[in-house]
Amino acid sequence: MDSRLAADLTGLPDLLTAARDYAATVLDGLPDRPVAVPAPDVAPAPLPVTGAGASGALAEFRDRWAPGFSGSAGPRYLGFVTGGATPAALIGDWLTGTFDQNAVTRQDSSAVDLERETVAWLRELFGLSDAHTGTFVTGATMSNTVGLAIGREWLGEQRGVSVSRQGVGALGDIAVLSGAPHSSIYKALAMLGVGRDQLRTVQLLADREAVDVAALEEELRKGPAIVVANAGTVNTVDFDDLRAIAALKSKYAFWLHVDAAFGAFAALSPEHAELLAGLDLADSICVDLHKWLNVPYDAAVQFTRRRDLQVSVFQNTAAYLTLPSGDPDLFHLTPENSRRLRALAAWFSLAAYGAEGHREIVTRNIAAARRLGGRLAEIPGARLLSPVRLNVVCFGVDRDVPALLAAVASSGEAFLTPTVYQGVPALRAAFSNWRTQESDADRVITVLRDLLT
């Protein structure tokens, strides 16, 4: 055994303690750490020949790379829709690496059964019935890809072909319909061979990002299609009328995929749960977990009512693998043949805090978003572009948006991201971190006021 490797094995308890202590220092300093930092100019180092051992590697990381890392795990990182990692989720993530399970088969481990339990908990959390089965994937993009891949196979079923065997060319023309699709939907269609141009955007309701259901019905008259509905749009967290869309299934043939990447967590808010009425009627659903569940990257889940079609797409056959029958092993259900036990961090967080603990995070984030939205009126030249429906504040300013965002990031107080809403350059503040308080919204207001007045 290499001498450095042997020394690290002998000293592993002390090394883990050192890593724990360093991690604790980083986490303790999150409230005061600059939320975003300009990437420092770090010269690339040559490949180490002998290596410095784990302790030396930790020291090098701390000195060369850590100073350039953002405070994205902290309470005022409001860019994109980024959660953090609850204490229990962090423990789960550490133990995921410790046990290093290849969580795709029951042949040698109970890891798959732990994932099944976690999926069942999530299904209940989101108000879904047992008709939905689910599997962990890397994030919303892959969750959407899996759901649309199953929908593509369903289209083949309607036309008497098997896309998984004959290829997407056997389908002929494909119609994908959506009101305000997330960019990952276009990416998924490109990866699946369906093509970005096959997505037809449907008319929205006035001053909304929600689809006009009557306009959608007109499109559905043309034949079988895949419909991508939104449960929480990226700019304004608008929700399509899922129940009304699902009701159209009594008259038209279509696959209903719901992108509920972070909007699914509205189910935890008594005030907002009605927004998800009809979610259980979807054929496939995307939910991202490293957003509002606050587990470390990467983690998401996909649900579907048609596991049989899912297996048709993703099954993997080899002499050393189990057959895709009954309750199939997980390598028959997603693009990955091997992967880490992503479910463990989610299992820990749900086991530690339960539905009530996560409900408190969701309601507190919503309150912080409302506070920011309400206080924008105090700042000359700032204005809401849409009501604060859930946890995202979309607003405009009478200033150059990129310059303002750069100034906010340089202040170290917050990180926001840009967008364009109804043709207007805008800013987004997305609240989804378990540490965030209403006082953090006040700090963002302060820095915006300082920069805009």
UniProtKB/TrEMBL annotation:
One of its GO terms (biological process) is carboxylic acid metabolic process. The keyword Iron does not apply. Keywords: Decarboxylase, Lyase, Pyridoxal phosphate. It comes from the Bacteria. InterPro entries: Aromatic_deC, PyrdxlP-dep_de-COase, PyrdxlP-dep_Trfase, PyrdxlP-dep_Trfase_major, PyrdxlP-dep_Trfase_small, Pyridoxal-P_BS. SUPFAM superfamilies: PLP-dependent transferases. Signal peptide: none annotated. Its cofactor is pyridoxal 5'-phosphate. Gene3D superfamilies: Aspartate Aminotransferase, domain 1 (3.90.1150.10), Type I PLP-dependent aspartate aminotransferase-like (Major domain) (3.40.640.10). The keyword Lyase applies. GO terms for molecular function: aromatic-L-amino-acid decarboxylase activity; pyridoxal phosphate binding. Pfam families: Pyridoxal_deC. The modification N6-(pyridoxal phosphate)lysine is found at K291. Belongs to the group II decarboxylase family. This is Amino acid decarboxylase.
